Amino acid sequence: MGAVQGQGYIGQALGVADVLAVSYFHAMRYEANDPRWEDRDRFLLSIGHYAIALYAALIEAGILPEDELETYGTDGSRLPMSGMAAYTPGMEITGGSLGHGLGIGVGMALGLKRKASDARVFTLLSDGELGEGATWEAALSAAHHRLDNLIGVVDFNNQQADGPSTEMLSAEPVADKWAAFGWHVQRVDGNDIAALVNAFDAARQHPGERPRVIVCDTRMCKGVPFLETREVTHFVRVAPEEWDKALEALDAGRPQS
Amino acid sequence: MSAPGKKRLTTSAMIASIAEDGQETTAAPFGHALVALARERPEIVGLSADLSKYTDLHVFAQAMPDRFYQMGMAEQVLIGAAAGLAREGFQPFATTYAVFASRRAYDFMAMDIAEESLNVKIVCALPGLTTGYGPSHQATDDLAIFRAMPNLTIVDPCDAVDIEQAVPAIADHKGPVYMRLLRGQVPRVLHRYDYRFELGKAALLRDGADVLFVSTGLMTMRVLAAAERMAAEGIADAGVLHVPTIKPLDTDTILAALAKSGRLVVTAENHSIVGGLGEAVAGAALRGGVGPAGFRMIGLPDAFLDAGALPTLHDRYGLSVDAVVAQVKGWL
């Protein structure tokens, strides 16, 4: 997808890929052939620009056809560069105006409880979104309403448009903040599959009537060493000849099956 | 107008009645209409951001406590959560003050609700100049702000009759609606006319040969009274076209009324003259090739308004019956 445009939010996508893999292939319940299945767990992409990563997950999950990949970001595509609910099966909300996802998640979690559904709402947000006041309104609200069916997943890659998140508007100590807001908190290496599996299990199984959050420390451009070290990683530009090198690096990093 | 001997209010209260002395009123028409509707429709839920008592939603909260969500003083999550509840199949009625929905929660109205055309009704008290508190609470710009929002239907009811009939009508509409709300003891006027609220429709309440008022919200009751007085005093024969739905605008009915030749057209709204009904009607008339004999706008000035007692402010800014009559006299 990135190669189609020659650029994009591939740093974030590679960094969060492990989180999405564990979400879609371990933690969540869904029917690939029925993205609106009533009993599905809802996955809200608050960070709309991460759509490139979610499309890949939706394709791997069988919700989107693989041959649509190459339409990413082009006119008429169902895969716009920023995720929008009306465009894409499996895209629950229109994200992108940052700080919205968790509030919508509060409403969906309230609605699921009204319906006595045991489905959960997963909301993927970013460390940058912790600067948005609306995120904290939603955090207060979720705890106040005892939304134990809401799981926040924070991609903490410490990178924003203008530089490292902790130098823009630091949310640290981030785990303490969520705990003070009344959430069950875990902070894990977001590129460690085993740690993520354990964290998602613990989040689902925690018995308390509290919303849960997993802060995932991730590395931008994870799996492509020559990109991981590139200075500007918020919106990565990759030269045409570099795409094959990147794919080779990713293939080399695949776990042996 | 004040009854003789009765002292007129002169304090800048937050909650001020728009009812004039001796005017027939109904208590909390929105709250009672919503309860009646919600008894038949289990999907209706109510939300407020710490203002249920001041939006009449407390009537619903008391009648159906398990269907009411107190969201606290957090308008962004009020709107976001309403969107989430709508996504799960419920029909939320969310209330706050008009200033907070339009100014603070705008992005959440736009992206969480309107962009997806979700079935959420935002019902907001203190529209235009209906509080003496000053600019922090006077939503003189909400219509201008929301008219540019795609998918959003905008309703500005005149009185208790309008509100009672608008509640089921906006609930029947599948999509987002912003309704301005008169709350508390709300005047009851429109039952004296052959009128029913229809979403998207303007209604001619009285005809007149010299002047046509095109009005919305509480200004419809003011121009009705002004028209009666102008007739009684032989000033002019004035008609009143009530436009409770600001968007989509009923241009067919409005242009047909404007096309009747020889009349001065006067728009009247409880809103800034910038971006409200008056400019919407003017734009529709120009696009439709209809040029009335004259065109004037009654509305609030393009300014942050004073604090003060509501009757004082309505006189000062041209919304009282006296002020309407005086303005029209000057234009004839």
From TrEMBL, chain A:
Top-rank taxon of the source lineage equals Bacteria
A UniProt-annotated Pfam family: Transketolase_N
- This chain's protein is named Transketolase
Which InterPro entries does the record match to this protein? THDP-binding (IPR029061), Transketolase_N (IPR005474)
Q: Give cofactor(s), names only.
A: thiamine diphosphate
Q: Is Transmembrane helix among the key words of this record?
A: yes
Give the stretches traversing the membrane. Answer: 43-64, 84-110
Q: Describe the location of the Transketolase N-terminal domain by residue ranges.
A: 6-235
Q: Which family does it belong to?
A: Belongs to the transketolase family.
What CDD domains does the record tag this protein with? Answer: TPP_TK (cd02012)
Report the SUPFAM superfamilies cross-referenced here: Thiamin diphosphate-binding fold (THDP-binding)
Checking PANTHER family in the record gives: TRANSKETOLASE N-TERMINAL SECTION-RELATED
The protein's organism comes out as Roseospira navarrensis
Keyword annotations for this protein, in alphabetical order, are: Membrane, Thiamine pyrophosphate, Transmembrane, Transmembrane helix
From TrEMBL, chain B:
Keyword NAD annotated: no
Pfam families xref list: Transket_pyr, Transketolase_C
Is Isomerase there in the keyword field?
A: no
Q: Which CDD domains match?
A: TPP_PYR_DXS_TK_like (cd07033)
Transketolase-like pyrimidine-binding domain span? 24-189
Q: Which cofactor does it need?
A: thiamine diphosphate
Enumerate the SUPFAM superfamilies for this protein. Answer: Thiamin diphosphate-binding fold (THDP-binding), TK C-terminal domain-like
Keywords, A to Z, come to: Thiamine pyrophosphate
What family does the database annotate? Belongs to the transketolase family.
Could you tell me what this protein is called? Transketolase family protein
What's the source species' lineage? Bacteria, Pseudomonadati, Pseudomonadota, Alphaproteobacteria, Rhodospirillales
